[in-house]
């Protein structure tokens, strides 16, 4: 048999012809995906639902004392000069759940919030029921007041479905904080307010969470 010529294959394509760059540009960078949403927006499944005790003994007490938060979740607004339906845009947490939290500074003439002017331009907040104690380690650290928004002017205002839970520290807790914080603390008097619309959240419908909407 004669000598067979070796089979010559075409040279492999140059490495430069396999360009991975289209793959890299098609995947968004971590910085790009992070900037696509506001930094305080919560991913699906993450919610800000502190207990009454946590609201008073951590968030409100730190606000009054001028101490920092690990997560700055609650905006400060003049809540009694805002209509309840305008508060969504003022919330620091951008969530579709129908409840919002705010700090509101107290006018010094109202002391610790026992008596306050809660009238807005289009209505007023009216207290309902008795203040309920908020306890920590078996001692009362705060009071929780429930208010309902009425449109118009008292005593002829029309009751709405807007509800507020207003939290304030009791005087004994403020004195305890003053004794341990030094001459410059606490700074101002604040209340912490949780606002929601009764048709959208809580009893009787129990719609605490907003329906999930898949993101594009």
Automatic annotation (TrEMBL):
UniProt keyword annotation of DNA damage present: no
Nucleus found in the keyword field: yes
Region (Disordered): 1-45
Keywords: DNA-binding, Nucleus, Transcription, Transcription regulation
Intracellular or extracellular location(s): Nucleus
Pfam families the UniProt entry points to: NAM
Low complexity biased stretches: 20-44
GO BP of this protein: regulation of DNA-templated transcription
UniProt domain NAC: residue ranges: 42-198
GO cellular component labels: nucleus
Superkingdom of origin: Eukaryota
Any one GO MF annotation of this record: DNA binding
UniProt xrefs under InterPro entries: NAC-dom, NAC_dom_sf
The protein, known as: NAC domain-containing protein
Organism: Medicago truncatula
């Amino acid at each position: 048999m004669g000598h067979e010529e070796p089979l010559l294959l075409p040279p492999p394509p140059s490495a430069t012809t396999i360009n991975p760059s289209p793959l890299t540009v098609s995947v968004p960078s971590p910085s790009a995906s992070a900037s696509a949403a506001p930094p305080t927006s919560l991913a699906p499944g993450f919610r800000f639902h502190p207990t009454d005790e946590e609201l008073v003994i951590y968030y409100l007490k730190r606000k009054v004392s001028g101490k920092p938060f690990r997560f700055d979740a609650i905006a400060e607004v003049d809540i009694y000069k805002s209509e309840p339906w305008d508060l969504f845009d003022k919330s620091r947490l951008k969530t579709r759940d129908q409840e919002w939290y705010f700090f509101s500074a107290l006018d010094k003439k109202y002391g610790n919030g026992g008596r306050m002017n809660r009238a807005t331009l289009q209505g007023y907040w009216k207290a309902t029921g008795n203040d309920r104690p908020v306890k920590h380690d078996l001692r009362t650290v705060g009071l929780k007041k429930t208010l309902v928004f009425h449109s118009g002017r008292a005593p002829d205002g029309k009751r709405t479905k807007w509800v507020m839970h207003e939290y304030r520290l009791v005087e004994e807790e403020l004195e305890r904080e003053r004794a341990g914080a030094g001459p410059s603390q606490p700074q101002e008097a604040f209340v912490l307010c949780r606002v929601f619309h009764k048709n959208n959240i809580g009893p009787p419908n129990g719609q605490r969470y907003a329906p999930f909407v898949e993101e594009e």
